[in-house]
Amino acid sequence: MRVLVISDIHANLTALKTVLEDVGENHAENPPYEAVWCLGDLIGYGPDPNPCIELVRTLPNLICLIGNHDQAALDLIPLSRFNEDARLSATWTRSVLTPENESYLRSLPSQVEVDAFTLVHASPRFPIWEYVLDPYTADQNFDLLETDYCLIGHTHIALSFSRAIGKEHSVLQTTQLGDPVKLAPKMMLNPGSVGQPRDMDPRASYAVLDLERGTWEARRVVYDIEEVQERILKAGLPERQALRLFAGW
Ligand code: ZN
Predict the structure, then answer these.
(1) Chain centroid offset of residue 172 CA
(2) Are 241 and 45 spatial neighbours (Cβ–Cβ below 8 Å)?
(3) How far apart are CA 11 and CA 40, in angstroms?
(4) From ligand 1's centre to the CA of 188, what distance in Å?
């Protein structure tokens, strides 16, 4: 089975649709994916919270987690934990979210185990809010990881880590576009962000996990950023949220 792994859509419908087109049309596998694992933060920052939730809900064999921005929109996290832009976006998101989409978000788990994989938004230690950006933080989380693999989002950067069984320290797992990584226990894999990449590469980021072959393939795709920027400004959301999409931060 092939699994489309996405995270941090952040209410960017154009990026989400482009990812679904890319995985469906631009790659040879048939079917391109049979399941979707979404690691949270469907909303927050972007202008399309309701359409993004509604589209995600239609995806096949979906496992979807809740992220910190989803929780903020539900008033489950105090907005004081966010910077000003994120706060303004969360307040706006709350004001437009339909009751149906709100109750869908409320139903989402913060952690799921499936086969050899633990799925969380942030980390095994803190499923909702921790940035795994370095081997030291990865090590602390590998110590707590009970499955062979962990899929994480939250950082908006497709950084992955591996720690071979019996080894004390983890290393950065290099992932090259178009060159699938062979899975070997233990690994912590991050698909990057669909709707707001933060590695100075503005292309939407996602991954395809092939459970039969045991591979993880990182992918990027160009989408129409200007279209999203127009909607951000039209909604009265902070201009910085529009500008950052071009630069990828
Ligand atoms: Zn996020």
Answers:
(1) 19
(2) yes
(3) 11
(4) 17
pTM over 0.90? The answer is yes
**Span from the CA of 199 to the centroid of ligand 1 (angstroms):** 13
Question: How far is ligand 1, taken at its centre, from the CA of residue 111, in Å?
Answer: 16
Residue 50 has which token pair?
């309701």
Give me the residue label for tokens 């990584």. 181
Cα Rg for the chain, rounded, in angstroms? 17
Query: 31 C-alpha to center of ligand 1: Å?
Result: 29
Output the pLDDT for position 178. 86
Query: Residue 211 Cα, ligand 1 centroid: separation in angstroms?
Result: 26
**Distance from C-alpha of 172 to C-alpha of 73, rounded to nearest angstrom:** 33
Please answer whether residues 40 and 65 qualify as being in contact, where contact means their C-beta atoms are separated by less than 8 angstroms.
yes
**Tokens at 195, concatenated:** 């709707």
Rounded to the nearest whole angstrom, what is the distance from the C-alpha of residue 29 to the centroid of ligand 1? Answer: 29
CA of 183 to the centre of ligand 1 (A): 25
| Count of CB atoms situated within 10 Å of the CB of 61 | 12
Place of tokens 């969360």: 90
Structure confidence at residue 137 (pLDDT): 97
d(CA 135, CA 203): 25
- Cα 30 to ligand 1 centre (Å): 30
**What distance in Å separates the CA atoms of residue 214 and residue 209, rounded to the nearest whole number?**
7
User: What pLDDT is recorded for position 28?
Assistant: 64
Mean pLDDT by 10 residues, the chain (249 residues): 97 98 80 95 97 98 97 91 89 96 98 97 96 96 97 96 93 89 97 97 97 96 98 96 95
